[in-house]
């Protein structure tokens, strides 16, 4: 008997479960493995033998699971050490996989998950273990190298752009309007904040200013820009990434938060909108400043997901299964955008260790000369990724969801 296993790691997305479904569905069709197992709560769950058999699940439940946001298998932030430093967990993991006759391990995640994929593949090769390890990309941050974009980003971008559009309309209802600041996620990169520029009203961008971590934040210029626009329009709309940094490279909000980090060692941020609000009020521009931090809705708002994103998440899961059958190991399935006016995409493989622990930044040549918005070239890149919405299942007028948890 020959089986495979899949698990999810890191922060959730709206479409991460579509990748799992794509893999399971492809295996039912191609019959490459006898069973598709799943580790609940990532590699940590597998080490705890918290494992279920997806091949035994009801097809209707799986289809509902596919249309469910967040990590339906649970997730973890488990940093796998190098085998030279801690081989015990490698030995334990390989023993568990052998017990289940696992021949392929699929890990859905971002930079750190690709690091895990690369480490496990290397260890298996060095010790003559016949198990293939393949990474399936996922992150709303869109910061994985080599892939045109990441599954999860398009849906987050659509939600952000929709939120900008709706809150812009809300913030302009009065004769005497103020300033509205929307804060997006994005610790290191500005992809999510840039998505706010997609929102337009009567052919004009809703956001007057979009601030990204890639451009050093200039307080004086910010205050001058906001004051000028407010005096002209009696209203200013601002989109800002949580990861904004000053000219020294320090986070604007680091001092107020202290050095909080997650289990991957990433700085935990938030509060940029409040910081900018204080700058505006202290500068005497206006006291009428509202802020909105979108928070986790950016990664679980299935009601505002992108159909393209949903389908591409399915594609990388399906193709990961096919690549494993062809003998590949130590790779991540990446997305390639086809040339031409009509958008389409396909998958290809890239070595996981080339992706691991690296960051794809928002291109500086896609930022305007003033450093406070994005170019039309960037808009052209973003637009196809937010196309349409997937069909959801409903129960009592609310979306119907399904997760598999321990």
UniProtKB/TrEMBL annotation:
Its main location: cytoplasm. One of its GO terms (cellular component) is cytoplasm. Substrate binds at residues 139-141, 185-187, 242. The record marks 138 as: Important for catalytic activity. Residues 4-302 form the Phosphofructokinase domain. InterPro entries: ATP_PFK, PFKA, Phosphofructokinase_dom, PKF_sf, PPi-PFK. Its EC number is 2.7.1.90. Homodimer. This is Pyrophosphate--fructose 6-phosphate 1-phosphotransferase. It comes from Clostridium manihotivorum. The gene is pfp.
